[in-house]
Design a protein that fits this description.
About 50% of the residues lie in helices and about 10% in strands.
Length: about 250
């Protein structure tokens, strides 16, 4: 089973590395954009999915089915709204951090923080338990930190490179891209503090290791992650104990 959780600031390169790592390992890739598409269509496609049993499901359909099964069993869906995608969970899983209102985390319904984050943790954990997956974002590396078969990798880059990435990806000016990064960093920090009680979500101790994509190219970064994951599965990733043979 392949489970890798990548985490890092916007524009750091995780969204580029994630699909490449997933492809190298034959795993499903899950990030905000994929979940957005699924959240938008899951209610309308439930019947269509039942009608397509004769052919292998696409990756999006596999993830859609998994999310539907999880949320149908979850108490969080009892809060109202879409019966297949609870309102609070949908917001946290699919929106940029700065797009989620800081005064309330639900759409038309009050949902207590502990119940809200419980729903998020349930989705991420059961997706991890359900199959081979590479997560990017959503605090997956925190939620899955106690699962021994999860490789947690931090992705970072220098600010000027992050700005360049956002400029190219979102077709923004340098000034606008810098403003977007500041807003997303602040919003991300707010939510990690609110829901995970963490002041520094980029603390290196949260990860097995951190890759600086300003200095490490994508091909080698993918190789590092894949090799580290394989070593972890073989019990060879941890440090050599003092007094043991090298």
């Amino acid at each position: 089973m392949t489970i890798i959780a990548l985490g890092g600031l916007s524009g750091g390169g995780a969204r580029t590395l994630g699909p490449a790592v997933a492809q190298a390992l034959g795993a499903d890739y899950v990030d905000r954009l994929i979940l957005t598409d699924i959240a938008r269509h899951v209610g309308a496609t439930v019947e269509a999915l039942h009608q397509r049993e004769e052919r292998p499901p696409t990756r999006a359909e596999r993830i859609s089915r998994m999310l539907r099964r999880i949320l149908e069993r979850s108490a969080v869906t009892g809060a109202g709204g879409d019966p297949y995608f609870g309102p609070g969970v949908a917001a946290f899983l699919t929106e940029e951090y700065e797009d989620i209102p800081q005064s309330t985390i639900t759409r038309g319904h009050e949902l207590e923080d502990d119940r809200y984050i419980e729903g998020v943790q349930k989705v991420v954990t059961e997706m991890a338990e359900g199959g081979n997956v590479v997560f990017v974002g959503r605090g997956a590396y925190v939620i899955l930190k106690d699962m021994p078969n999860v490789l947690r990798v931090g992705i970072e880059a220098r600010l000027e490179d992050r700005i360049s990435t956002i400029m190219a990806r979102e077709r923004l000016t340098q000034e606008a891209a810098a403003a977007v990064i500041t807003e997303r960093d602040n919003a991300r920090g707010y939510y990690f503090k609110k829901f995970f009680k963490m002041d520094n979500p980029d603390d290196p101790s949260l990860f097995h290791f951190v890759i600086n994509t300003s200095d490490v190219g994508q091909d080698y970064a993918v190789k590092l992650i894949v090799d580290a994951f394989k070593a972890q599965q073989e019990g060879k990733l941890g440090p050599v104990k003092v007094g043991s043979a090298a």
